[in-house]
Specification:
The chain is of the alpha/beta class. It is built from 8 helices and 13 strands. The strands form 4 sheets. It has a 5-stranded mixed beta sheet, sandwiched between helices. Strands 8-13-12-11 form a 4-stranded mixed beta sheet, sandwiched between helices. Strand 12 and strand 13 form a beta hairpin. The model has no long low-confidence stretch (mean pLDDT 95).
Amino acid sequence: MISSKITGTGAFIPSVKKENKEFLNEDFLNEDGSSFNAKNDEIIEKFKAITGIEERRYAKPELNTSDLAYLASKKAIEDANVNAEELDYIILAHNFGDVKQGAIQSDILPSLATRVKYKLGIENPNCVAYDILFGCPGWVEGVIQAQAFIKAGIAKKCLVIGAETLSRVVDKFDRDSMIFSDGAGACIVEATEENDSGILSHATQTFAKEEAYYLFYGESFNKQADKDIRYIKMLGRKIYEFALINVPKAMKIALDKSGVSIDDVKKVFIHQANEKMDEQIIKRFFRLYKKKVPKDIMPMSIHKLGNSSVATVPTLLDLVKKGEIENHEINKGDVVIFASVGAGMNLNAIVYKY
């Protein structure tokens, strides 16, 4: 049976660093436009305690989402040592397209995947490039789609990218703006006949009742601002509760389908949205098997990189593969899980063996 494996990874971490202390002079407001009773230093201290975020990265003004995606893709192609002309698909996950610094419009014409193909100089017309909008789980879903193409026999090599510049769609009057960041991660997924390695199983779900609008585009909390300009908004408490209930279940579905024992799972690469939330998701996942959480099971990058949406999981994977996350490594034969949750509300998980 043909399966698929990740043969190379790459990430682009923007160079502009913004620390928590740089938000001390922001005018944070409540949804109704009223001021907080707490001072900014108290707001920031509580924010760090919950999310784990100490700083985040923003893209330079001259770089757009597609530029970040291209730079991460180049590294993944080099890491996999493949000829870009042999790529069958370029699948690019994002949420807001190219948003130029200071602009209020999203630019997705042509698709960002097409722009990456152009920047890579790929001439082969049979290399199909397209975007997917799947919220934060977009990159994981892109890998699932690449696996489907490969198993169907219509692809052998795919480039899957997650890229975003969330710093350009945040409302600076909303304290949630401190969560979001920019970045890009990419991987090459190739066909393999090694049935005991690569992608073993997956699970994907969409919840679209009231959950559909837990993340949405909304007006600024500053009631004097232009009401035609929209920003990323979220119902944080509802997302937190939703994730804690549903992500562990999806991870269990994927793991049970794989036939792998929970005791053989060495790492869980989970979307970097909120440190406390991720810790609770992992705890509940292992509790489903009546197990305690093993030491060093969950690498984290959120402390320094923030939440870059679709870019968090591939960036984290690349950092661990390159030995840049302390006390974390992946060895031959290790079973890992990729998992994410986000707008839709969508969630997914992949069980993978190296």
